[in-house]
């Protein structure tokens, strides 16, 4: 009876923890393949500025074909990237497909802002939202797909991918990728919290995610935020008539338990490994091993005593009363055929 109670309690506790983790992942992850046609669109997505749904609800147009137009699409629910007193930072991945018309505007940007940030779109901003005068205190992280060469931001060309302050940029012309030719492009952005590594990939096809990132650099995002953040996509066209469209967008938070963490795997460290240093032996090691072995032996001895008493006392009780004894019964032999049916499940991807 006691064993059954403990088993039921552990099962219920496991289910509770599982569903709690599942609910947390669902609230921090989303996927929109067709925006306006999705039943969760209005409750989960907010549109700012000139952003509006087009093409029967399938796409989102961020900017109009007039100068100084700006728009943004934000996920309404805040995402918790930092957990616990030890500030465990979660990893994340986002994917979106977009297209930009041939004019030279400010293109598109993926942004992450603190939950206290007031979204204010502006056609004068290079990422479509007003960030104020002091970027270092704004707490904004952005990856921009720029089609305008701005010398004050250190832009390499009018066709590049970079961060908000152009910490690191990549010219796309040498890769035969053009941001503003009107064609659909697919982007993958991944952040690994264990190595503080941000990787950006870009392709003309959704089925061919590049193995090597287009841009990869080290950045500690945990220093930017103390709590929750909002994620979004924004655009501004400056003094042009450039239009920007979002075709699909997904975001997934990846939280790894502490017991699964190993040392951070940083590609830079992996290429230049540090020499191993000898660890001095401690006299306390012997006593630690002794206590561990002695404790294990005591536990095994106690378990053996309990099992022995259980068997001795159990043998004294009749399992079946004599008056209820069973007479031998002859069974006919019949051949039983076991049939195993295997079901094949095909998983189709768009």
UniProtKB/TrEMBL annotation:
Domain of life per record: Eukaryota
Keywords: Lectin, Membrane, Signal, Transmembrane, Transmembrane helix
InterPro entries xrefs: ConA-like_dom_sf (IPR013320), Legume_lectin_dom (IPR001220), Leguminous_Lectin (IPR050258)
Segments passing through the bilayer: 286-310
Signal peptide positions on this chain: 1-24
Stored SUPFAM superfamilies: Concanavalin A-like lectins/glucanases
Family as reported in the entry's similarity comment: Belongs to the leguminous lectin family.
PANTHER family associated with the record: CONCANAVALIN A-LIKE LECTIN FAMILY PROTEIN
Name this polypeptide is given: Heme-binding-like protein
Species: Hibiscus syriacus (Rose of Sharon)
């Amino acid at each position: 009876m006691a064993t059954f109670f403990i088993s039921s309690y552990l099962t219920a506790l496991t289910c509770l923890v599982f569903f709690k983790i599942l609910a947390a992942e669902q609230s921090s992850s989303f996927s929109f393949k067709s925006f306006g046609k999705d039943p969760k669109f209005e409750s989960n997505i907010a549109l700012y500025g000139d952003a509006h749904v087009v093409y029967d609800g399938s796409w989102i147009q961020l900017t109009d074909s007039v100068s100084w137009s700006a728009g943004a699409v934000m996920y309404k629910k805040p995402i918790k990237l930092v957990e616990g007193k030890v500030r465990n930072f979660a990893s994340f991945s986002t994917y979106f497909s977009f297209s930009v018309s041939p004019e030279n505007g400010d293109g598109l940007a993926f942004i992450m802002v603190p939950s206290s940030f007031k979204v204010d779109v502006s056609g004068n901003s290079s990422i479509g939202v007003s960030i104020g005068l002091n970027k270092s205190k704004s707490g904004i992280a952005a990856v921009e797909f720029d089609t305008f060469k701005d010398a004050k931001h250190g832009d390499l060309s009018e066709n590049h991918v970079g961060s908000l302050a152009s910490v690191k940029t990549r010219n796309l012309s040498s890769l035969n990728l053009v941001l503003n030719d009107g064609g659909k492009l697919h982007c993958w952005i991944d952040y690994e919290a264990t190595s503080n590594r941000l990787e950006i990939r870009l392709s003309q096809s959704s089925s061919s995610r590049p193995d090597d990132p287009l841009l990869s650099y080290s950045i500690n995002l945990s220093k930017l935020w103390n709590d929750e953040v909002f994620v979004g996509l924004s655009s501004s066209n400056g003094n042009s008539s450039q239009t920007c469209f979002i075709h699909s967008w997904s975001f997934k938070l990846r939280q790894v338990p502490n017991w699964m963490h190993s040392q951070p795997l940083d590609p830079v460290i992996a290429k230049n490994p540090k020499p191993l240093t000898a660890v001095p032996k401690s006299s306390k090691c012997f006593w630690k091993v002794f206590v561990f072995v002695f404790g294990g032996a005591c536990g095994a001895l106690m378990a053996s005593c309990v099992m022995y008493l259980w068997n001795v006392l159990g043998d004294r009780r009749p399992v079946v009363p004599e008056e209820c004894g069973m007479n031998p019964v002859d069974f006919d032999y019949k051949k039983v055929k076991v049939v195993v049916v295997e079901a094949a499940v095909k998983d189709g991807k768009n």
